[in-house]
Structures are given as C-alpha cells and as structure tokens.
Amino acid sequence: MIEPPLTPNAIAYAWERLWALAGAEELTIPRVYGPPHTPLPAPGVIISPAAAEAWEQLIQLPPNSLNWLPAEALFPPGYPRPFDDALPVLFWGETAGKRPPVRVREDGSILFAIDLIATILFMLTRWEEIVIAQRDSHDRLPATASVAYRQGFLDQPVVDRYAIILQAWLQKRFPSWQRPQRGFSLRLSHDIDHLRRFLHPNEALRQTIHDLWRQKRPVWALEDIRDFLMGRLWLDHNPYLSAMDNLAQLDEQAGYRGVFYIMAAVPAAYDEGFPVHTPALVRRLRELSARGHIIGIHPGYHTYLDPIRYQAEKARLETTLGRNIHHARQHYLRFRVPDTWRIAAQAGVVEDATLGYHDHEGFRCGTAHPFPVFDLIADHTLPVREHPLHVMDSTLITYRGLTPAQGLARLRHLARRVQEVGGEMHLLWHNTLTPPNRRPWMEVYRRFVTAPATVP
Ligand SMILES: [Zn+2]
Q: N or C: which terminus of the chain has fewer CB atoms within 10 Å of its end residue's CB?
C-alpha cells in the first residue's frame, strides 16, 4: 500500500487548488489544516484532518455505504444554493466530530469538520488508481472499480461543489469580499484514429454483406461500397475526413474552437498507423489551425509507459506541421498515474486530456476545471495541466449501450452539474460517426453543443 499523499507539499497544493476553485485568491486570511481548537491570529479557515487510515478505509468501503449530507446542511443558512441535492462526505475530520459539518467558531473562523484537503488530494492526485489493482484487458482502470462509481458520486463534480460551499461561507463571513462569477463553457475535442472507414477490401466486403443480408438495408450496403472506394480513390473527400470538417464547423457554430488530437503512430496492434504526412490530412490541419482550432498529439496505444515512443510520435507530428505541439490525449485513454503525466511533461506536453473513464461518463477527477497535476510519488507538481474528460461518444454508444435520446439526456444532466459550479464540460467526439447506424450520434452532438444546458 502506498501512503496517502499528505506531505507538506501535497497539503500546500490542495490549499492552493481549493482557494483557486473558490475564487478566493485575493482573500488573504489564515488557513490551518489541523485540530479544531488551533488558535489563529485573525479569523480564518480551519479544516480538520481525517485520520490517515481513512484513505484505505474509503477504498475498502462496501458500495453505497458512504455518508451523504443534504446541501442545506452544508451551505450557510439562507444562502442562495446553486445546487440542492445531497453530497457525499469522503473524509470526516478526526477530532472535529460529525455535526455540524461546517460552523463558525467563537473567534469568527470557519471550521470544516469535513476534510476538504483530503477530498481534493484523493480526487486530483488519483491515488486510488495506484492502490486499486483492477484493470481491463487494455490495462485501464474501469470506472466500476473506482470509489466514485462504487459510492455513487461519479455524476458529481465533488471537488468543485465543496469549493463552492467554502466560497459561500467565505462570502457570508467576509461580506466585503466579492466572490467571482464564473460561466459555463464547453471543451470540444476530437481524436483522429482513422482517416478512412475501411483499410482492407475484406472489411468492406464483410460490412456490405452484413448490411445487405443481415440488416436488409441495400442503401447502407451501397454506402459501404462508396466509403471503400472513396477511401481508396478520393481520400480528401471521403466521409472520415469530411467529418473532421463537419466537427470543426459545429464547434465554431457553438462558439468554440475544438482540439483535434492526431495519431502519428507507426502501424501496430490497435494503432492504424496512417502516415501523418498524408497531404489531405496536413492541408486540413493547417486550415483548422488557421481558424483557431488546436492541434494536439494522440499518442498511440503503446506510448503510455514508453517515453521514447511517445516522443517519437510527437516529433513526427511536429516535423510534419513544422511547429511544436503542447496538447495530448492518450489513445484508448490508456494511462498510469503518475507515469504517463511524467512522460507527457518530459516530452514538452503542457496540457493532457486523458482522464475520463472509457466505460462510464462522469467526473473521474471530481472536477470540471483544468488543474495542474501533482506527482504523488515525487511529491511535487508537474508542469502539466489536466483537462479532465467527462463524456466520450463511444462510452455512451458502446460501453453504456444508450440510445441517442438517452445519450443526449445524460449530456444535459452532466452539463447542468457543470453549470452549477461554473466549470468547463469536456467532450470527445470522433470523426468516425459517419455510417448510417452511427449518424444519429452526430445529430446528438449538434443538438447538444448548440444548446448544452437546455432541459430536454
Ligand atoms: Zn484513439
């Protein structure tokens, strides 16, 4: 068992994150992570620490047995609450007792009996990903093994919500301080794993026969043949490359610029390995760039523990485009904490976007705000920011088996949660949703990004 990250460096990092998420950078008041009766030179904030054993107990806890509190028990009385549903308590402070969870001490200081520092460190350092051994066949931690899923709070940006609660108490206690207003935004991203639908004639043939005989859809079968021929003869206008144009256009219509993560792997298991210098692709990337979209690297299946391969793929894309790349997301969302962050940092990547679960949408890191990453083994921050991923198209379609209508409802549900905390909702939509049976999911994307928080 690796020790929970509770070093002075980690605690300072957590305070810094908590303060930033509460928008309280300007508010210089005493802050203590210690016993409830700690004397302070002036009114400030005290967070009562949980016992170190509480971390392992949280991992071992049977499903759905965490303590939850209604929002009204957490916000100051009479405060206009941005959300009203219950919150899980991950860590109770050891010596502060359980009731009330927050109160104002006689000297005017705010005392949290809930350990917000441990909560932030637990969610952001991804300590559980080292401690929990369970993995799928691609060496990925499944959402279903995570504490957030097992305890039923994967749907909640729990870190952001607690920061908002701290903000409410600061506002009440220090009325001359004005809390900042934060708006909702989207981060729209696209992984380019394939440039054409069929690599080999056999694949196209199998699909055509399937659509003709099994599905009884001659029109689909004709599309299969067309897609195959266009992939061979007119790559530039084949559906997968046209889908890149469509996605960029939708992103722009929604008022955003997207992030396009491009594979530059050589052919290998799970990596198609298309040549990144393919003229039809390079032309597009230059055009997307000129329109303000971001081009990032999509490091291949075999890179998440291999710095040499990671750097080689990144260099290949950089040479092709003639400039440096700073953004990355791992293919298959393969990731190991903290190794993959270190490899990204070494390669000069400053923004990673991998941390969402492949098998379930939601808040893997408990937040809808990008954050600087903390290496819990080396005990320091790394020069990389994580943009946590909240929803991937294939999660909804394949892993969760949702209908397009259910998918849209889930997107809007999560969007409301992000809106409540003034965060950034991060989507991953591929350029491969062009076959007729997948096309409704492009419509889901269009409807969602153009009206993300409308009640369905
Ligand atoms: Zn990929």
A: N
Give the largest CA-CA distance in the chain: 79
CA distance 172 to 185: 27
Gap from CA of 143 to ligand 1 centroid (Å): 18
Distance from Cα 299 to the centre of ligand 1, integer Å = 8
Average pLDDT, 10 consecutive residues per value, the chain (456 residues): 93 98 95 96 97 96 96 95 96 87 95 98 98 97 98 98 98 93 95 94 91 91 88 90 97 97 97 95 97 98 98 98 98 98 98 98 98 98 98 98 98 96 97 94 97 65
Domains and CATH numbers, the chain: 8-173 (no CATH), 185-195+238-450 (3.20.20.370)
DSSP class per residue in 261-293: EE--PPSBTTB----TT-HHHHHHHHHHHHTT-
Dihedral of the alpha carbons of 449, 330, 293, 391, in degrees to the nearest 10: 10
Give residue 456's pLDDT: 40
Q: What is the pLDDT of residue 232?
A: 86
One-letter identity of residue 135:
R
- CA–centroid distance, residue 79 to ligand 1 (Å): 44
Cα 60 off chain centre by: 25
Rounded Cα distance between 86 and 69, Å, is 5
Q: How much is the pLDDT for 204? A: 87
Question: How is residue 325 annotated by DSSP?
Answer: -
Long-range interactions of 57-63: CB distance < 8 A, separation 24+: 58/90, 58/91, 58/122, 58/147, 59/128, 59/131, 59/132, 59/147, 61/147, 61/150, 61/151, 63/150, 63/151, 63/152
CA–centroid distance, 25 to ligand 1, in Å, is: 37
User: Ligand 1 centre and the CA of 272: distance in Å?
Assistant: 10
**CA angle, 154 then 160 then 165, to 5°:** 120
Closest CA to 297 of 272, 263, 268: 263
With beta carbons less than 8 A apart as the criterion, state whether 450 and 436 touch. no
User: Is 321 within 8 Å of 285 (Cβ atoms)?
Assistant: yes
Q: Where are the beta strands (DSSP E) in 159-245?
A: 185-192
- From ligand 1's centre to the CA of 191, what distance in Å? 6
